[in-house]
Amino acid sequence: MSLLEVSNLNVHYGDLQALYDVSLKIEEGEIVSMIGANGAGKTTMIKTISGLLSPTSGKIRFLGERIDGLPPHYTAEKGIIQIPEGRGIFPFLTVLENLTIGAYTPRARQKMDQSLEMVFEMFPVLEERKTQLGRTLSGGEQQMLAIGRGLMARPRLLMVDEPSLGLAPILVKKVFEILRQINTQGITIFLVEQNVKQSLNLCNRGYVLENGRVVLEGMGREVLEDERIKKAYLGL
């Protein structure tokens, strides 16, 4: 049984269709990447899995249980945690307050102290700045805070939306190293990202989304070597 299975998913914004019969699987312990240009439907995919959007048709199963159309607090309690595009931190709360808010589900609150210790071990800079307001952090530090807040929720599946957005290349490399480290701790990751080379080098398997449709899937390195990907996304 897959950790997450999406079958023939269709999603609309009013009369506009954003996803067309999208299917994918994520196995426990994997890093799975979904790449595509702006407007391809990547964020729509994550929001629908989270419960922020309801599909027009299709099925989403998490550990065999249907979750499509269920509210976000239900999916979060099950362990599906989304780190949104643009980080979404609370700018006028401290770093520590931002992190503790992440442990909002009953399951996560029980292990909040343990989670906080883990986050500070992974991101020492957050412990150093725990009394600072979120808005005073650099872009890279804010991304670390967003990831740390997601970890506070004790995810079974961590969905990360465009983590490299707006970061300098050296910080992008750092963020991807952090995601690899998180995965080695047993957390499954679904990564949505425009940085094709970094995300496909990181993942076990990759999906390519174009105009709301999956047009290619396979092992990460295999997808990266596909001539269509080289031409469309890498300029080769």
Automatic annotation (TrEMBL):
Endpoints of the signal sequence: none
InterPro entries in the cross-refs: AAA+_ATPase (IPR003593), ABC_branched_ATPase_LivF/BraG (IPR030660), ABC_transporter-like_ATP-bd (IPR003439), ABC_transporter-like_CS (IPR017871), BCAA_Transport_ATP-bd_LivF (IPR052156), P-loop_NTPase (IPR027417)
Domain called ABC transporter: residue spans: 4-236
Record's keyword terms, sorted: Amino-acid transport, ATP-binding, Nucleotide-binding, Transport
GO molecular function: ATP binding; ATP hydrolysis activity; branched-chain amino acid transmembrane transporter activity
GO biological process entries: L-amino acid transport
Top-level taxonomic group: Bacteria
Family membership: Belongs to the ABC transporter superfamily.
Protein name: Branched-chain amino acid ABC transporter ATP-binding protein
Provenance organism: Aerophobetes bacterium
Gene: livF
